[in-house]
Amino acid sequence: MARLYEEGGKALSAYLRPRESGERPYGATNEIVDVVKTLGQVAERWMSDPARTVEAQTAFTGGFLDLWTNALRRFSGEDAPPTAAPDPKDGRFKDPEWTENPFFDFLKQAYLHTSRWAERMVDEAQDLDPHTRHKAGFYVRQISNAVSPSNFVPTNPELIRETLAQKGENLVRGMRMLTEDIAAGRGDLRIRQTMPGNFEVGKNLATTPGKVIFRNELMELIQYAPSTPKVRARPILIVPPWINKFYILDLTPEKSFIKWCVDQGLTVFCLSWVNPDARHARMGFDDYMRDGVLKAVEVATAASGEDSVDAIGYCVGGTLLAVTLAYLAAVGDARIASATFFTTQVDFSQAGDLQVFVDEAQIAAVEARMAQRGYLEGASMANAFNMLRPNDLIWPYVVNNYLKGQAPFPFDLLFWNSDATRMPAANHSFYLRGCYLNNDLAGGRMNVGGKTLDLSKVTAPIYNLATREDHIAPAKSAFLGATLFGGPVRFVLAGSGHIAGVVNHPAKNKYQHWVGGAPAGDLDDWLAKAEERKGSWWPDWRGWLADMDAREAEARIPGEGGFPAIEDAPGSYVKMRV
Description:
Blueprint lengths: L1 H19 L8 H19 L2 H26 L21 H4 L1 H22 L6 H17 L10 H10 L2 H16 L25 E6 L3 E6 L5 E3 L3 E4 L17 H7 L4 E6 L11 H20 L4 E6 L1 H16 L4 E7 L17 H14 L1 E2 L1 H11 L1 H4 L1 H9 L8 H7 L4 E2 H13 L2 H4 L3 E2 L2 E2 L9 E6 L7 H8 L6 E6 L17 E4 L7 H7 L1 E4 L3 H11 L3 E3 L12 E2 L10
Parallel strand pairs: 4-5, 4-6, 6-7, 7-12, 12-13
Antiparallel strand pairs: 1-2, 1-17, 2-5, 3-16, 8-9, 10-11, 13-14, 14-15
Helix pairs in contact: 1-8, 2-6, 3-5, 5-6, 8-15, 10-11, 12-17
């Protein structure tokens, strides 16, 4: 206990020191005010109708009476059916004592009953506008996940056993790690999800051979070395998201989409975005399109000797690619012969839980923060993504790291997930307002490069991949966006989520994917008629490329196509950490 107290003082000091120096502000006032205001609107709707309020209270107390009755039967040695059972996929209550011990079983069911009742109060509140209801439901889930009995030593049987067995040593180790993680976040908690010392970009991640053949203020362009004597003539250009780093597509060799493409006889170019700072504050979508995508197209075509490329856009990189396609359609430029979208949104009307963070007041608050430095800290976006799946990406690590005192398992995907990037102020503001808030791209109102963009004018063939369990770019949103293009669209739905559904090497034979007709109507109707196929979608996409253009050429060596090699892949920009 003395050592725990000592380590706790160090953690508090790590939190306070940056605030006392002025480096970090105290508290999260805007966020707390918004939560209180939103939940207050729910309470107001219920309190305005006394009869419904009594019904809600009766449902709450009635459930507890049933739970108490069943708990007494269990304490007496009788069997009793659960009043509230956890979802079979809920990993928080897997320890046998949550079911076998009547006390912990009661605690678990009391928590489940209360949290589900709170969610029903949001769902059944009358006269709430959809955005407020969405926010309230999200906030209630965040609070209920935070107060789960699995997150506290006295109410978690596994943690009690662990603490007694180790005489509290686990808590001392955990507090020490908490101090280190607060210090790593310069006063803000940066929860470690993996052991960072096990991975290094360029050493055991992002190791596919290649060269950086072009660099400007916004991006480096990597050309990968061929592994076959002949290659498909038209090259591939990958436009990754700037919200994350490109090497999600080039993790270890056995997971790497880029390496697989090279081994399939494709000439691959990939943008690596700079990790921006104050110098990039005024760079917006126009700059990212001109100095990013269009410059990469210019270099890739010149280096390969072809007059066009097949482009791939992932997540917000796909949104930028769609913007570029609409711009090129407006100016009559056909250098992007086809486009592939990985979990990309162009219509944001069904954008899922990320819409919780987007309204005028919240965007104005983000813009005020960005105005101070010229960018948004990488941790802000990382935290937002983690909050979409707190029971997978937040609380398991809090319990494992700080209560069990165990170092997390080395995992390349989570190392990438923690390798955050900043958002330049102008670009991020345009994205939040033009896409999430106003949905200008889908509505035909977005202006980039002096052109008003119309996706229906895009006639290049499109391969549109969505993933069924995506919490960032929901499948229904990606499907809706796929219907807006004016050319042929092959829509494919992959199993799993935003990352695992995309990064799914065929050798693993994991998950499945669905193929069907052109996207039209509703996703559920499309899926009912689609063909389910086992394993990865990657071979289907390679076949789609071959059907469009199967011409071959001699393999191209990076640095020999008119653009001398600057340095080895993965380059310098990707190694800049925040």
